[in-house]
Amino acid sequence: MKIQLKPEQEQFIQSRLASGRYENADDVIALALKLLEEWEKGYQEWEEKTRKKIAIGLAQVEVGEVLERKVIIARLEDKLRQALGSQE
Predict the structure, then answer these.
(1) Domain span at 1
(2) CA 20 to 30 Å from 30, out of 11, 22, 44, 87?
(3) Is the dihedral of CA 79, 83, 86, 88 positive or negative?
(4) Whether residues 29 and 2 fall in one domain
(5) pLDDT of the residue at 1
């Protein structure tokens, strides 16, 4: 397989080689592909979990198990306050 890189991609690989952490361009590309594979796997798992949550939510809506808008907004505001508080 022959791959043609964009100049900025070549420059990135060269900068990684210059850092001394990699012996050659193949090492840089192999690691990049491994990380992409791991990311793809995580994304697929997230997508599957999200689909299941949506299915559960739609089933709850069908039987009338819904929350009022005010309750949802209040819960989201609480989560936001907690998240902002944990950043301090």
Answers:
(1) 1-42
(2) 44
(3) negative
(4) yes
(5) 87
